[in-house]
Amino acid sequence: MQNETNQSDENATQSPANQPGWIKMALDFGPLIVFFTAFKLGDLFVATGVFMAASILAMITSKIVFGKIAAMLKFNVVVVMIMGGLTLYLQDETFVKMKLTIINSVMALILLFGMLRGKLYLKMVMEMAIEMDDAGWKVFSRNWIIYMFVMAGVNELIWRTQSTEFWVNFKTFGYMGATMVFMIGHAPLFMKYLPEDNVK
Questions:
Q1: How is residue 171 annotated by DSSP?
Q2: Quick one: residue 67, left, alpha or beta (phi over 0 = left, psi -120 to 50 = alpha)?
Q3: Rounded to an integer, what distance in angstroms lies between the CA atom of residue 160 and that of residue 181?
Q4: Radius of gyration for the chain, computed over Cα atoms and rounded to the nearest angstrom
Q5: Residue ranges per structural domain of the chain
Q6: Cα(96)–Cα(92) distance, integer angstroms
Q7: How far apart are the C-alpha atoms of 91 and 171, rounded to whole Å?
Q8: What digits encode the pLDDT tens for the residues 45-86?
Q9: pTM value?
Q10: Cβ count near 188 (within 10 Å)
Q11: Alpha carbons 37 and 26: distance in angstroms, whole number
Q12: Which of 72, 83, 131, 198 has the fewest CB atoms within 10 Å around its CB?
């Protein structure tokens, strides 16, 4: 009986729903802030190495705190390790600057592939945070795919035409701000497609 109680307490501790929201936010944005700070104190190569270490730390922390590592986090860390590793090995900024393009493009293609197969992958990832019926998820998935392709293009345009400092500022603040505006702009959609049992 005591073992069952301890197991229950352990599961509750590992459940994301029982963890403070700031922990997940720190895991999502912590490595990015560390990257920005390291760039300001050093250069892009220093920042890349620090970002790689911070990303690994975020993955380990997620496993310890939540008991699992989200698929998106795993994918992001793999891309960070590959592109960051090439950047440091070849001493070429191109690879780390293309990381955002690759992540956005690959995720957009995965979501598009899912929709063509009648699968709502975005719903599987975000349904704990957003409640909508499938019609709403289809619209949101379509818009998210378009957004990611657009942001991949914007990233390519910026790193190819602007200074490294400008690109770092865009990566740290511009992309985050654009995503927040995108999500806030979809508030009417979230309300429109609330599941019927949630509509009073």
A1: I
A2: left
A3: 25
A4: 19
A5: 1-92, 93-194
A6: 8
A7: 20
A8: 999 999 999 999 999 998 898 888 888 888 989 999 999 999
A9: 0.82
A10: 8
A11: 15
A12: 198
